[in-house]
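Quick one: structure tokens for this chain, please?
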Amino acid sequence: MKLLLTCLTAVFLSLSVAAQDPGSAMPNAIFYNRDNSPFSTYNIPKGKKSLIIFFDATCEHCQKVVAQISKRTKELKNVNIYMISQDEYRSIDYFMTNFGKPLLQQKNVKVVQDRDHVFIMAFHPKQYPAIYLYGQDKNLVFTSSNQNDVPKFFKLINP
């Protein structure tokens, strides 16, 4: 009985974890560059807004969102963009080439792999795509998984 109660408590606590609240600090997490070198969110600089997009290469909503965002790259020149996926680089490359090609040509865009599957535990996304906008202080400004919220991000990036 004690084991059952412990298990139920653990399940309840894990289900009660919510997505980040606006104003919360960017979590520290380590992802990997193409050359397998680590990239930490700790290294994301302050002083510039950061847009983090967590995607799955086979997700239709992710494809639509990234295609929408990539059509407006000129409006994103003052924000650092981090594209993060748990997929293999082969799938990430296909996704970016087909849905985010204009983003690949931007110096302020970094594509990294979450091969250790730490994003979900650190950022608590509700579904794909998960988009997070952090302010210059690395505190959360807005987050959404709704493809209809893309214009809201642009309003917050370019007030």
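The chain has one domain: 20-157.
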